[in-house]
């Protein structure tokens, strides 16, 4: 790769980066890669119903300023082939397959909502693969969720320009204003946008999330198997996966920091994107120092 190629790679944003594909294990995974070509990659694990273009460019682009960031569609989501699993364990297996296909031996994970459940499963089972873990708006196995009730309430608000506004943000004027700005940012990309696969994704994902939270985990076995440093983040008024989940996780994890953002719902990381990025950078850069330099088949 020439210096010009490296400069062009570093200049890519979520809105301009080309969508790449890599195939293996019977799945053709869609992904975008941003940021430097060296360093520990940060792999993003998306929320229920979300795809690559559901991420906030304000978060992804800022994080990619000083580290490789990879956003991808797991099996069956967006433009990735295969069938969307109805359980977290298989979603985690597919995500690990994707990481392996890229040739990566060590990554950081940022899991949001359902993606946070997947991230927990990966970190518990693949301790050598995951260096650090960021869990946002998520729940432990056996945690509290109100997915169907919150979805029903959000879709009943027919005056909302997008269901993510009532799902991710509170009713305060400040939060709603942040929500509208978030929605605008997610729609900047016009070409090569990801696809919405409807019920083929949301039905199995809903079952996976509900089952994860409905299944007891005696002794918090998954959380206690996670030995990596963890940053746990929640919004104070998250109605889908309430903030008491974040407190419960931080209490059981062996090495966790807890951040609670005020006047914010499920999309706290998007509402408070500047400070969220700052918190993530501080967490990822803290001692112990970054893991070994890792490059893969991007």
From TrEMBL:
GO molecular function: hydrolase activity
Domain AB hydrolase-1: 41-272
Organism: Bradyrhizobium barranii
Coiled-coil segments: none
Highest classification ranks of the organism: Bacteria, Pseudomonadati, Pseudomonadota, Alphaproteobacteria, Hyphomicrobiales
Name listed for the protein in its UniProt record: Alpha/beta hydrolase
Keyword terms: Hydrolase
InterPro entries to which the protein is assigned, alphabetical: AB_hydrolase, AB_hydrolase_1, AB_hydrolase_fold
Range of residues in the leader sequence: none
């Amino acid at each position: 790769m020439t210096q010009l190629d490296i400069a062009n790679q570093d200049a890519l944003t979520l809105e301009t980066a080309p969508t790449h594909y890599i195939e293996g294990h019977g799945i053709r995974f869609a992904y975008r890669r941003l940021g430097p070509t060296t360093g520990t990659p940060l792999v993003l694990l998306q929320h229920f119903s979300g795809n690559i273009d559901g991420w906030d460019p304000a978060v992804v682009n800022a994080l990619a300023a000083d580290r490789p960031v990879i956003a991808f569609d797991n099996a069956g989501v967006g433009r990735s082939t295969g069938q969307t699993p109805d359980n977290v364990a298989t979603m985690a297996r597919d995500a690990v397959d994707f990481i392996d296909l890229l040739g990566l031996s060590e990554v950081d994970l940022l899991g949001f909502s359902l993606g946070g459940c997947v991230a927990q499963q990966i970190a518990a089972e693949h301790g050598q693969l995951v260096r650090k873990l960021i869990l946002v708006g998520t729940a432990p196995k056996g945690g509290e969720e109100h997915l169907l009730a919150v979805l029903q309430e959000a879709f009943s608000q027919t005056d909302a320009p997008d269901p993510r506004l009532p799902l991710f943000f509170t009713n305060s004027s400040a939060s709603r204003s942040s929500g509208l700005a978030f929605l605008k940012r997610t729609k900047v990309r016009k070409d090569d946008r990801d696809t919405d696969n409807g019920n083929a994704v949301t039905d199995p994902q809903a079952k996976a999330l509900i089952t994860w939270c409905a299944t007891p985990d005696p002794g918090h076995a998954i959380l206690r198997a996670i030995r990596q440093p963890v940053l746990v983040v929640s919004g104070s008024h998250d109605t889908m996966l309430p903030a008491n989940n974040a407190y419960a996780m931080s209490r059981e994890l062996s090495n966790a920091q807890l951040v609670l953002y005020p006047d914010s719902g499920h999309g706290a990381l998007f509402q408070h994107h500047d400070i969220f990025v700052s918190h993530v950078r501080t967490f990822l850069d803290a001692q112990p120092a970054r893991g070994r330099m890792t490059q893969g088949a991007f």
